[in-house]
């Protein structure tokens, strides 16, 4: 049922996906309802025009919220609050950095933090295999004393990728786990919090009490990306993530040029 402003006022656990929403107001209203009570659809929409419209609508919301948070940061600076600089401060922006920020980071982070949010066995198990593979590679790097002892890294990575692809294929038709759907709100917010928390690594100094408010933009973005992922598919969250990063990087580059 659709309520005032186009918001979906009732979504049950049997919902397969969102209906096509008429406008941005309806999309934003549905997002607000989702964050108030996260429910996992049976299946995300297939890629198509509805997903593209959703990406543009949620990008507009993302930019609006980022502008509000930026205004708060500027106000804090104006009253004398010392805000730690990010890792991008003073870094020369070249093609390699742009590729990492706009392409590699969105793909890698969306797989790590939101691919499994569908709750489907293939997504959950493949993520588990990839994480286990990464941990195994990290263990080898930590304990290796010679270059020869680093050789297993390649095979651990290959094994993780092959296992992930295998479970995706084997469980491609399976619905989400029931237990996953039951605790989906918890998993959604844990994913969002983890995504925001990893961006604490962008800062080289400052205590946790100072740094936590600085990753609020990533927390907001993570909630938007999670909404897109479960309703429109992983491709939509990767696309919005890439657009967000590209716009931020472009603003940093523009500010750097203006300062010089």
Distance between the termini: 55 Å
Going by helix content, strand content and strand pairing, the class is mainly alpha
Fraction of residues in H or I helices: 55-70%
Total strand segments: 0
How much β-strand is present in the residues? Answer: under 5%
Architecture overview:
This protein is mainly α. The chain has helices at 24-36, 49-78, 95-113, 121-143, 152-170, 178-182, 184-198, 208-211, 216-232, 234-259. The radius of gyration is 20 Å and the shape is globular.
In short, what is this structure?
The chain is mainly alpha-helical.
List the helices and strands and how they pair.
Blueprint: H1 24-36, H2 49-78, H3 95-113, H4 121-143, H5 152-170, H6 178-182, H7 184-198, H8 208-211, H9 216-232, H10 234-259
Features:
single chain, globular, mainly alpha, 66% helix, 10 helices
């Amino acid at each position: 049922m659709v309520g005032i402003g186009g918001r979906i006022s009732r979504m049950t656990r049997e919902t397969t996906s969102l209906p096509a929403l008429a406008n941005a107001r309806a999309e934003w209203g549905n997002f607000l309802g989702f964050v108030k009570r996260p429910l996992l659809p049976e299946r995300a929409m297939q890629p198509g025009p509805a997903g593209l419209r959703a990406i543009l609508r949620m990008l507009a919301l993302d930019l609006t919220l980022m502008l509000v948070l930026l205004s708060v940061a500027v106000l804090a600076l104006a009253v004398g609050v010392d805000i730690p600089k990010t890792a991008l401060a003073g870094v020369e922006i070249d093609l390699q950095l742009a590729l990492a920020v706009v392409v590699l980071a969105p793909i890698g982070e969306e797989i790590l933090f939101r691919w499994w949010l569908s709750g489907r066995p293939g997504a959950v198990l493949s993520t588990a295999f990839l994480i286990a593979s990464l941990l195994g590679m990290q263990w080898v790097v930590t304990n290796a004393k010679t270059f020869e002892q680093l050789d297993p890294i390649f095979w651990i990575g290959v094994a993780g990728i092959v296992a992930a692809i295998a479970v995706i294929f084997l469980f491609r038709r399976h619905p989400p786990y029931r237990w996953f759907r039951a605790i989906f709100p918890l998993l959604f917010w844990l994913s969002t919090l983890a995504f925001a928390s990893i961006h604490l690594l962008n800062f080289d100094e400052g205590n946790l009490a100072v740094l936590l408010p600085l990753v609020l933009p990533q927390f907001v973005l993570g909630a938007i990306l999670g909404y897109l992922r479960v309703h429109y598919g992983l491709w939509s969250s990767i696309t919005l993530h890439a657009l967000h990063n590209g716009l931020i990087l472009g603003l940093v580059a523009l500010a750097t040029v203006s300062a010089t």
